[in-house]
Design brief:
2 domains; single chain
Length: about 160
């Protein structure tokens, strides 16, 4: 706050004192002003509104300061949620590259599903063509091949996503 904000600050402190039934002296206002000098008058107004709604007792400067800091953290978190989409919109080429990577990953996933479906049918199809059920050894071999395909898919996904898959 600046010295130009003293009158507005005094009004907010008087409002707070009135709500909590405490006399507001000039010394109290000066002590609060000094303690909250790093805050803007808008932040003080918002903190006073919050404390009027949530406090049962007249707050000390540290409580006002903590309320301001909490609101700052909340605003920063909200901004961080909005910032990535704004950055993506600011760099359409990055958005295009990301879309291409997603499409490539989707294609790899489709190919994996088709390959697994083919592997799944192989032992049963071959055995039934011969008029019998698949043997335990055929099913075990099938499971070993399927596990290999899944391991390859995981490795490919890990490379595509930078190791986060």
């Amino acid at each position: 706050m600046t010295s130009a904000d003293r009158r507005a600050f005094a009004a907010e402190l008087a409002r707070l004192a009135e709500v909590f039934g405490r006399p507001a002296s000039e010394a109290l206002a000066e002590a609060f002003f000094d303690a909250l000098a790093d805050c803007s008058i808008e932040e003080i107004r918002a903190a006073v509104r919050q404390l009027i709604r949530s406090s049962r007792f007249f707050p000390c400067p540290a409580e006002l300061l903590e309320t301001v800091r909490h609101r700052r953290r909340e605003l920063e978190r909200a901004r961080s949620l909005v910032a990535p989409p704004q950055r993506a919109l600011a760099d359409p080429e990055a958005l295009t590259r990301e879309a291409a990577e997603i499409e490539q990953a989707r294609g790899a996933f489709r190919a994996l599903v088709e390959r697994l479906a083919g592997l799944w049918r192989q032992p049963a199809r071959a055995a039934r063509a011969e008029g019998r059920e698949p043997t335990v050894a055929e099913v075990a071999e099938h499971e070993r091949r399927k596990a290999g395909v899944l391991a390859q898919a995981r490795a490919a996904a890990s490379e595509t996503t930078g190791g986060t898959a």
